[in-house]
Write a structure and sequence with these properties.
The complex is a heterodimer of chains A (314) and B (471). Chain A is of the alpha/beta class and 314 residues long. Helices cover 31% and strands 14% of the residues of chain A. The termini of chain A are far apart. The chains are: A alpha/beta (314), B alpha+beta (471).
């Protein structure tokens, strides 16, 4: 082993031959976490929206338990404003892997008068109540999420196993220290834990992994022609819940989505990335963060994500 | 050297580049040392900050009247994540940052230094391949620097890099730097840091504000001929490379993969032989140390039982059969004999693990506001097993500034001390000095489940291999 006691010592080339690649290291870490949660919790579930991060999570789970089935259900919080092709993808995936699907419906809560539509029409912030209700009804004690620390400044400080109180709230100032690869998931009745096995992945890692593992995604992640109009500096798809206002011209553009959320707040970016390799190149060269580019809900305030997380959001 | 990042790389570059490897490092120091600025500088100059984030920071900087001649961006804002932190101008919690060069992907644990520095430094250092400790060139080695270095020595961090920051504020003076460097090396010698064959210690003069020696070597420090900070981070061997000489395979069993009838439908659809996998049974886990090959002799360690020896019949990973695997791979291991193996057991290279023990001697980094008292009942989580334990005695507390053990019968938040625990079941404990994974454990409060301490297994008193480590 070399030492660096003096500055004159030449820095040697890092050995690359015997080490795992960063993707293999991240994969191994995520699988370790998924297995720990399954071993230590009574009733875990995986949040599955059909978005790329949750698709990667599910793929990792299939690898963790091969040749067995993924031993937990998937949970989708349906805003009622989803892209139809994403719902179709969700249902096909659940079928293919023989999983149980639990759906928490924002629409049902609105219909029952337990949630009110927001003035801006955005339903992403409304997902918290149905999510917590589904967790409580099904007695899930651990919920896997595809959250990544590179997404947001608040997420950068969240633990891999993140304790939530009886109200689903995250207390950023009172988190357990997370040491070595020893995860402490102990909780009391009423509390649950959010588990984020891909915390350490970046958007580019996700895409490189999707490319390497040949993972299928909903088609709207790749460039396609779509009728759109401009709003808040983003291209919005024309759809049932997303109609142009006066003065917003509808045009046809070649676009793709970098995140897949509620149709009412997710914007598309102009792109010619028709294949996964094209997307890897595009993401690598991008000058905007994925949330900055395409998510109106994170623009509401500087601390938008932090506020929603404290209230029990994903 | 190239500082082109993958973010600015061309498509052609991406296709031809070797796969990058992962390197984890932490930063330790106080706000006053310019740590947030250094982290912001590393991210900014390695082009890891995208335009919209930078715009937001520039707007906030302007709103607060930051800037003047320096260009108007408060780089420290890049790392202050929570609302309270931005409002109070302090960092509350360990934050993780990501950036990449064409050689490596970096995970940076940014550890605040002013409050609960021990808790944060221990947390960040527990997974780090290297730790960067900041010193203000105008102040030199302070008591806090000694404390930080002491914690890093205790946690066996492989590489300690001391960044002497604000070198611009001492007019890029070589003599100031050399004096501080000599002080750092003196502290290192007292601790055994950098001269123990386990860790190394490097000192770099930097200006985080202006970027000197952060990403590029600076022309303003011509007397310094060593590498810039990022160059150091790109080339130091990671902990798993340094530990690759360890031949002793260690594999804590996480769970048993035994699908019986419940085979994955997608695997079956892809042609999995249902008959052949009807009685499939494998032990899933992550290799914490060493490597294993099919045919190797291994021992299964189950608490309260004599080790059982068998051979490795197969190593599986998601449909692939591997000939061999090494730390830190997650795999599933099949054994030749049908032993009853369960979560909490450890599979290890045959004959390399000493007898499991119910007597635990350890250094404890106390991380909770609830103090540790003798006679207290706690939980100990080691590998994949959690057992009850009784704190029999606290034998002293470390004075981090003098590196001496003082008498103490309790430990409080941020204290590091020695304790003896009696475990309800024996565990295959190993000395942390040589085994950063199987020598580590958590102390957990059985009442509320909170983590109370980070524990480092020590040899039994009188059984020390080297008194230097007996803090």
């Amino acid at each position: 082993m070399s030492t660096y006691l003096s500055e004159e010592t030449q820095v040697t080339d890092a050995a690359v031959s015997t080490r795992l690649s960063s993707l293999d290291t991240l994969e191994s870490e995520a699988i370790h976490i998924i297995r720990e949660v399954v071993a230590e919790f009574e009733k875990p579930a995986l949040l599955f929206s059909g978005g790329k991060d949750s698709v990667v999570m599910l793929h990792l789970a299939t690898k963790a338990f091969w040749p067995g089935k993924v031993p937990f259900p998937v949970l989708h919080v349906d805003t009622g404003h989803n892209f139809p092709e994403v719902i179709d993808f969700r249902d096909r995936t659940v079928e293919r892997l023989g999983l149980k699907l639990v759906v928490g419906s924002v629409q049902e809560f609105i219909d029952r008068g337990e949630l009110a539509e927001r003035a801006d029409g955005t339903r992403n912030p409304l997902q918290t109540v149905p999510l917590l209700d589904a967790i409580q009804q099904n007695k899930f004690d651990a919920v896997f999420g595809g959250g990544r620390r590179d997404e947001d400044k608040a997420r950068a400080k969240e633990r891999i196993l993140s304790l939530r109180d009886e109200f689903g709230q995250w207390d950023p100032r009172n988190q357990r220290p997370e040491l070595w690869n020893l995860y402490n998931g102990r909780h009391t009745v009423g509390q649950h834990v959010r588990a984020f096995p891909i915390s350490n992945w970046t958007e580019l890692d996700i895409w490189r992994y999707i490319e390497r593992e040949n993972i299928e995604l909903p088609g709207l992640y790749y460039a396609h022609e779509r009728e759109v109009f401009a709003r808040d500096g983003m291209w919005r798809a024309v759809g049932e819940v997303s109609q142009p206002r006066d003065g917003e011209d509808v045009i046809t553009k070649t676009v793709r989505y970098r995140t897949v959320g509620d149709m009412s707040c997710t914007g598309a970016v102009e792109s010619n990335a028709f294949t996964v390799s094209d997307v890897v190149v595009e993401v690598a060269a991008s000058t905007l963060t994925e949330r900055g580019a395409t998510r109106a809900d994170d623009r509401i305030s500087e601390a938008a994500m932090e506020d929603r997380k404290k209230d029990g959001y994903f | 050297m190239s500082t082109e990042t993958v973010l600015s790389g061309s498509a052609g570059g991406l296709e031809t580049a070797l796969p990058t490897t992962l390197f984890r490092f932490a930063t330790a120091g106080s706000v006053d040392d310019g740590k947030s600025t250094l982290v912001g500088r590393l991210l900014h100059d390695s082009k890891a900050i995208l335009a919209d984030t930078l715009d937001a920071v520039a707007r906030t900087s302007a709103d607060r009247g930051f800037g003047g001649e320096k260009g108007g961006i408060d780089l420290a804002l890049l790392t202050d994540g929570l609302r309270a932190e931005r409002e109070q101008g302090i960092t509350i919690d360990v934050a993780y940052r990501y950036f990449a060069t064409d050689r490596r992907s970096f995970i940076l644990a940014d550890c605040p230094g002013h409050v609960q520095y021990t808790k944060n430094t221990v947390t960040g250092a527990s997974t780090a391949d290297a730790v960067v400790v900041l010193i203000d060139a105008r102040k030199g080695v302070l008591e806090q620097t000694r404390r930080h270095l002491s914690v890093l020595q205790l946690l066996r961090v492989a590489h300690v890099i001391v960044a002497v920051n604000k070198i611009d504020l001492v007019d890029f003076s070589e003599s100031v730097f050399r004096d501080i460097e000599a002080d750092v090396q003196q502290v290192g010698r007292e601790l055994g840091l950098g001269s123990d064959g386990i860790s190394d210690l490097l000192v770099v003069p930097v200006s985080a504000l202006d970027g000197d020696n952060v990403v590029e070597r600076s022309e303003r420090t011509p007397w310094y001929t060593g590498p810039a900070l990022l160059e150091v981070l790109e080339t130091l061997p990671a902990a798993d490379e340094l530990e690759s000489h360890l031949e002793s395979f260690r594999f804590p069993v996480q769970l048993v993969v035994r699908p019986q009838g419940a085979l994955a439908p997608d695997a079956v659809a892809a042609g999995l032989d249902v008959e052949a996998y009807r009685d499939y049974r494998a032990y899933a886990g992550q290799i914490t140390e060493g490597s294993v090959k099919v045919g190797d002799q291994v021992s299964v360690l189950t608490p309260g039982q004599a080790p059982r020896t068998t051979t490795v019949a197969g190593i599986d990973f998601a449909g692939k059969s591997l000939e061999e695997a090494a730390a830190p791979q997650s795999v599933a291991v099949r054994l030749a004999d049908e032993f009853d193996v369960a979560r909490g057991d450890t599979i290890a290279a045959a004959g390399t693990v000493r007898e499991a023990s119910a007597d635990l001697y350890a250094a404890l980094c106390w991380l909770s506001p609830k103090p540790l008292r003798e006679g207290q009942k706690v939980l100990v989580k080691h590998g994949t097993r959690t057992v009850q334990a009784l704190v029999r005695s606290v034998s002293g507390k470390l004075d981090l500034a003098s590196f001496k053990l003082e008498g103490a019968s309790s430990l409080e938040l941020n204290d590091i001390g020695h304790a003896q625990l009696r475990l309800a079941a024996p565990l295959p404990l190993e000395n942390y000095l040589h085994h950063r994974r199987t020598g580590a454990f958590l102390v957990i409060d059985p009442l509320d489940g909170n983590t109370l301490a980070a524990g480092l297994v020590k040899d039994h008193p009188g059984d020390h291999e080297d008194e230097r480590y007996s803090i």
